[in-house]
Amino acid sequence: MPSPFFRKIQTLKLIPQHPSKTSALQLLSELKTQGFTVEIRQVQRDLNTLSQLFEIENDGNKDIPGWYWKKEAEKLELPQMELPVALSFQLSEHYLSKLYPHAVMQHLSPYFKLSQKLLSSMDSPLSTWSNKVKLISRNQPLIAPIISESVLNSAYIALLSDTLIHATYKAVLQEKKEYELAPKAMVVVDQVIYLVAENLASNNLQHFALHRFSQIKNTDKPIHQDKSFSLDDYMSEGNFEYLYTNNPTIQLKLLVTEKAAYHLDELKLSDDQTIVPFDDEFLVTATVKNTDQLRWWILSYGDYVEVLEPESLRDEFAETADILYHIYHHNN
Q: Beta 176-189 vs 192-199: how paired, if at all?
């Protein structure tokens, strides 16, 4: 679709019905917002051309003509996808496809194709926007595990219909086990998709990695809705960070290098974090969740960070350091 033609279609859509009206300058601003590269004279020429083909006119004001659809003009059905909408579809396909049920992805597929076709044919700054913004992770790049399409579809169907499932699941280093589950939510953590569900055998909320299901069977049994469940609460409780429930919150004190302190000043561990100079290094204190995620993060800094408190955590790292020393020096 040539850009000038599409620009004229969008211009027609922006013109209000009488008695409301708009000016060429207002139309210019809205077209630029939609990503069109256009000048005021082009808009004025478009309006004059369109007024000969469609039931639009201006109020005759010689200084700033006001344009509108005639009061008796018949409703004109025009293509609905605008450039910002097309860009939204394109970014959604790139970054949110894991969050859509399979049936929804199939329904959206024509819109994804149309958005791609529209953006690739337009001479607009929005056409190349997706090449200028990217979402990445600082974690070690890992290949996403393969999930059976039937498992994924069944999980989404259960979530949409609020129905129970019968599932076969193999946890890490355990045998396969049968479960009856009441799905509550879906969470994507890096490359892994988790199903948050109530285990009916224990009445506990758990999360299950979808790629570890070998089978999910849908049922027509409705789920008893627990209005107290909140996915935000479930996540904030540290369930995806491997929380130490016997001591969920700790006062962390670290001795860090200048480089690590600079980084932590930009990306804080907590709202109450403090950083103060200490000899040639810096003391960092913060109230944090006591999780495996915290331990992995500290380990990633190597000798840039020393744990001072709590003493129990310092002892853990001393033991880990000792084990690593023996691993790397056992042949020396």
A: antiparallel
C-alpha torsion angle, residues 148, 152, 155, 158 (rounded to 10): -120
CATH topology assigned to domain 3-69: Arc Repressor Mutant, subunit A (1.10.10)
Rounded to two decimals, what is the model's pTM?
A: 0.71
Between strands 67-69 and 56-58, the pairing is: antiparallel
Rounded to an integer, what is the distance from CA 172 to the centroid of its chain? 27
| Helix, strand or coil, per DSSP, at residue 279 | coil
- SS3 assignment, position 150: helix
Q: What are phi and psi of 329, to 5 degrees?
A: -120, 10
CA angle 162, 167, 170 (to 5 degrees): 135
Cβ(163)–Cβ(198) below 8 Å: no
249-329, CATH topology level: Alpha-Beta Plaits (3.30.70)
CATH code: domain 149-236 is 2.30.30.520
Q: What is the pLDDT of residue 3?
A: 65
Looking up tokens 């109230």, which residue turns up? 287
DSSP classification of residue 35: T
H-type alpha helices, the chain: 3-14, 24-33, 40-51, 83-95, 102-121, 149-161, 231-236, 258-266, 292-300, 311-329
- Residue 199's φ and ψ, nearest 5 degrees, are -80, 110
- CB neighbourhood size of 303 (10 A): 7
Whether pLDDT at 105 is above 90: no
Cα–Cα distance, 224 to 292 (Å, whole number): 33
Contact 289, 243 (CB under 8 A): yes
* 76-85, 162-171, 301-310, 315-324: least confidently modelled range: 76-85
pLDDT of residue 316: 96
**Tens of pLDDT along 208-237?**
999 999 999 999 999 987 788 999 999 998
